[in-house]
Design brief:
single chain, mainly alpha, elongated
Length: about 140
């Protein structure tokens, strides 16, 4: 909607076309995104439980840490889920914007140098079409 200035239905249809036309890219990002999300859940939940344990042990060393650790794990999972869902949305949005810029061939000045090599095809070791492959 914001990029093209069109209504919701036509923009949603165009986004669907972009996803279907680049299914392999979106599939790869989806798989890698799930792995990164799972790692994020584990780290956020683990650090929440570890910090909670040390704080509980320092403040109330006489009580059993079992039930508070379960509660810390639940809270850590919820916080991790919220944070990593925002991360996944940002990754999907960046991919759609990258594909849009690639299709239109514009916006090269605003793209980070690492992504610019993908758009322009000037990767290291890449040969130009006019070069002889045997030379």
């Amino acid at each position: 909607i914001a990029i093209r200035g069109k209504n919701f239905c036509s923009s949603a249809y165009k986004a669907f076309q972009i996803i279907v036309a680049n299914a392999l890219r979106f599939g790869t990002i989806a798989v890698l995104g799930e792995v990164i999300q799972w790692i994020g859940y584990v780290f956020i939940m683990g650090f929440t439980v570890a910090i909670g344990y040390f704080l509980l042990d320092a403040m109330h060393s006489d009580i059993s840490p079992f039930l508070p650790m379960i509660m810390y794990a639940i809270v850590g999972y919820i916080v991790g889920m919220l944070f990593m869902n925002v991360f996944a949305l940002a990754v999907d949005t960046c991919l759609q914007c990258f594909i849009f810029a690639e299709e239109k061939g514009q916006g090269i000045d605003f793209i980070p140098s690492q992504l610019k090599t993908l758009l322009t095809g000037e990767a290291k070791g890449a040969r130009r079409e006019d070069e002889d492959p045997l030379e």
